[in-house]
Amino acid sequence: MEILYTTAQEDGFHMPAEFEPHRGCLMIWPERPDSWQYGAVAARKAFARVAEAIAKSEKVTVLVSFEQYDTARRMLSSHIRVLEMSSDDSWARDVAPTFVKNESGVLRGIDWGFNACGGLVDGLYFPWDKDNKMARKICDFMDTDVYDCRDFILEGGSIHVDGEGTAMVTERCLLSAGRNPQLTKDEIEEKLKQMLNVQKVLWLPYGIYQDETNEHVDNVCAFVKPGEVVLAWTEDENDPQYAMSLADYEYLSKETDACGRKIVIHKLPLPKPICMEEEECEGLLYWDDKPTREEGERLAASYVNFYIANKAIIMPAFGDAADEKAQKMLAGLFPEREIIAIPARDILIGGGNIHCITQQIPL
Amino acid sequence: MEILYTTAQEDGFHMPAEFEPHRGCLMIWPERPDSWQYGAVAARKAFARVAEAIAKSEKVTVLVSFEQYDTARRMLSSHIRVLEMSSDDSWARDVAPTFVKNESGVLRGIDWGFNACGGLVDGLYFPWDKDNKMARKICDFMDTDVYDCRDFILEGGSIHVDGEGTAMVTERCLLSAGRNPQLTKDEIEEKLKQMLNVQKVLWLPYGIYQDETNEHVDNVCAFVKPGEVVLAWTEDENDPQYAMSLADYEYLSKETDACGRKIVIHKLPLPKPICMEEEECEGLLYWDDKPTREEGERLAASYVNFYIANKAIIMPAFGDAADEKAQKMLAGLFPEREIIAIPARDILIGGGNIHCITQQIPL
């Protein structure tokens, strides 16, 4: 593994879209007792279900602590690889490398700086050194060269690309005080262009209400093909999310992508607000002086947080009336893929969803 | 990775000889402060030299704790892979899988039971659970099926094979009370035949004097090709090693291998006795109530503990007059390989040598 100090752009590499073919998927086993209630038992089951569903499409590698290797190994099918790697939490989307490739199919990773979504300003846990080391170590394991981009704070969940020159982010996240406050919006955009090798960055104003990642784009909006997105949507004008989704809709309606296309926006319904219950809160360790979650706290539930596997869409289900609507809409948008809905409340409680706990490795 | 409960013999797999082509080599980074003096600084340098020498021939993967990943990564060339994996010590020969393959070139690992060379009887450290888990985890990382043979205690350093149906072991080690005392010699031999798929086992009576592994065969005798071995040898009749090497010589002289060949024995000279110095002892942490090494303690130095890489022999050097003789003899025996001698006192202090800290992966 060479550690590279150049950029994808100058080397002729770019980030493929998630809907392009994968050689595999990375996940991280849940363990942290302030993220995953009741010893992470339910989270383990939910993660395992996600891994098994993806493994029908592509090779899944699950990274796990020394202590939990045996449990993960026995809970997962033999065709899923389990690999020891220390982590601080389980957000493969955010801590695994962002992969780029060139026209010959050579793969490289990007090792962004990671500070638990906000560092000492509003980061979600402390310390985060194990997570910050993972991208490079994953590239080492894969024998893939890696771009050292640790001086720029970015999580994989805060970017989406269409594979044809367009990236999509939220202003709330990328301009947050806990990321790269020393850089201007233009400088951040330039960094994304260089490292992802895109020509245009779409800046949605907002993500999902109360999304503690400072509103990662991957919870609110996703490309389903070049020129087409799904946008998380509510018809309830009293919901704080309404104005946020509307602002995103209006922004996207006026924009074109890198190829000059108008963007087709599919409104993907949101479930009704999902809130923490007392029993769930009791199952979590305290992180510091305040509880990680409080009873009644609204969680950032969204169907947009799906994973596009080679042969399937792995989408979260919340036991809500909108589950079926969302599933049908995704079936229409991805006609060649099976839509697999997995009950995801036990992932949501940790602070993210199926897209957040996965990272694709392009073919 | 499938966990298999059958045997290599019944599945048509066998262990190739070390002098056959490799696809790579596994090593483990030294760290344990009761094995490696002065914070393992000198050991790291020596291990790195071994890794670099082997990496000229084949892909080297170095397994390392979370804590030392960055140091290993920076000390080793970029073409060497560094992978996090927890261990108790650094004996890849003994804790990595023994690899077997079939006629189609499919590779499988054997996951022997490991108890630090003697368990509660005379094991070298406690606990040994991390080491005992490594073979399976390495197979998982390599995506290679693995034989579960954990009910049988064996270290890779206690066996040698010629790749043509013959294995070689020492009675001292394989019949030791800390290995498999519930099994008879015949039962142990049968297990080796089944798992390595050999037809004959050669039982040398002894290994190297004071070898704390209960005299692993890989420190005293090694195949250089089918039908030919090097045997560690001293001409000093007052050395306790003399009678041990002589007994091995006499045993081998009367034996034939699995193909019915008489065995050609090359006497590889031993260096003069190498003993621990006071300063070296001071550099080691205590393991328990007694020091790990005592001043004047004789170490089990032997040139037989070399590694056969694809294009080179990596042999230990001790700064002894015999270094050159041994190197010349190995050059004659391996005419197509470069003979690379690496100063190995800093490995020897840990209780083994270059063969002990490596494990080949057959092509």
Q: Give me the oligomer status.
A: homodimer
Low-confidence stretches of chain A: none
Arrangement of strands in the largest sheet of chain A: 1-7-6-5
Helicity range of the residues of chain A? 25-40%
Number of strands of chain A: 19
Average pLDDT score of chain A: 97
Instruction: Specify which chain pair forms the largest interface.
Output: A-B, 21 and 21 residues
Radius of gyration of chain A: 19 Å
Which structural class do the helices and strands of chain A define? alpha/beta
Q: What coarse outline of chain A follows from CA principal-axis ratios? A: globular
**Which strand-content bin applies to the residues of chain A?**
15-25%
Would you kindly provide a written description of the structure presented here, covering whatever features stand out?
2 copies of one chain form a homodimer. Chain A has 363 residues and is α/β, with parallel strands linked by helices. Helices cover 28% and strands 25% of the residues of chain A. The first copy, chain A, contains 12 helices and 19 strands. The first copy, chain A, has helices at 8-11, 41-55, 69-75, 92-95, 119-122, 129-142, 171-174, 185-197, 240-254, 278-282, 322-333, 345-348, and strands at residues 3-4, 22-28, 59-64, 81-84, 98-101, 107-113, 145-153, 160-161, 166-170, 200-204, 221-225, 228-233, 264-269, 274-275, 298-299, 307-308, 312-317, 338-343, 359-362. Chain A has a 4-stranded mixed beta sheet with strand order 1-7-6-5, with helices on both faces. Chains A and B meet through helix 3, strand 4 and helix 6 of A and helix 3, strand 4 and helix 6 of B.
